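A reminder from the course coordinator: this example appears on the midterm review sheet, so study it carefully.

Given structure:
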């Protein structure tokens, strides 16, 4: 299944691909090495774009008191931090261009805050990307726990999409946004939560359990 954020990009890529084919046919013979090379490269790019915007079904765990991964990718940071006068455990997930880029809510709850910050586009795996890059900051709360999610643009990403507004009611695993072409998502959880992942763990949005809590 293709995500709705990809429709326009895929349409443009398809038109460009057809122009490559027509140009190769007009300028070169169909059997020429140039036309064949253009066809192979442009088709490969088209398939890359298709796979980037894929939106597979997820099997959302049903048990309570869990914090799900908001993104597909690799865990690159697990550390204690101080943010807005509170102590948190930050779990950062790097999303490569080959990962699914749909973002999902880690918990069931109410959106308490949504803030957008313009910023830089340094590589998303660098620690300072969390503070300096373009990002969206989201706070989600239920009766038992409060967490925060940061959608962070990377060196390639130039568009963060967030579907949320304050007071929205979310289910765990529900879609909350999309980041295009390589990025990072940080999850801030209370220090008393029990982290269930380690560095370099590959996680799946809406399926993988990052932590549990009482």
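Designed residues:
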């Amino acid at each position: 299944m293709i995500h709705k954020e990809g429709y326009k990009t895929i349409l443009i890529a398809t038109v460009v691909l057809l122009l490559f084919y027509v140009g190769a046919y007009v300028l070169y013979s169909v059997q020429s090495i140039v036309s064949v090379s253009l066809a192979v490269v442009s088709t490969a790019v088209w398939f890359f774009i298709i796979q980037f915007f894929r939106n597979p079904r997820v099997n959302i765990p049903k048990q309570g008191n869990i914090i799900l991964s908001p993104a597909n990718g690799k865990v690159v940071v697990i550390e204690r931090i101080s943010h807005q006068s509170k102590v948190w455990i930050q779990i950062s997930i790097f999303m490569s261009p080959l990962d699914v880029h749909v973002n999902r809510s880690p918990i069931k709850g109410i959106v308490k805050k949504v803030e957008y910050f313009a910023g830089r586009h340094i590589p998303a795996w660098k620690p300072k990307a969390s503070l300096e890059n373009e990002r969206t900051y989201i706070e989600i709360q239920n009766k038992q726990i409060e967490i925060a999610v940061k959608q962070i643009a990377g060196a390639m990403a130039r568009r963060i999409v967030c579907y949320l507004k304050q007071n929205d009611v979310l289910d765990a695993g529900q879609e909350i946004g999309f980041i295009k072409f390589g990025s990072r998502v940080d999850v801030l959880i209370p220090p008393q939560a029990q982290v269930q992942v380690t560095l370099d763990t590959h996680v799946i949005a809406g399926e993988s359990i990052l932590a549990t809590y009482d």
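The first strand starts at residue 66 and ends at 68. The chain has two domains: 4-52, 66-212.
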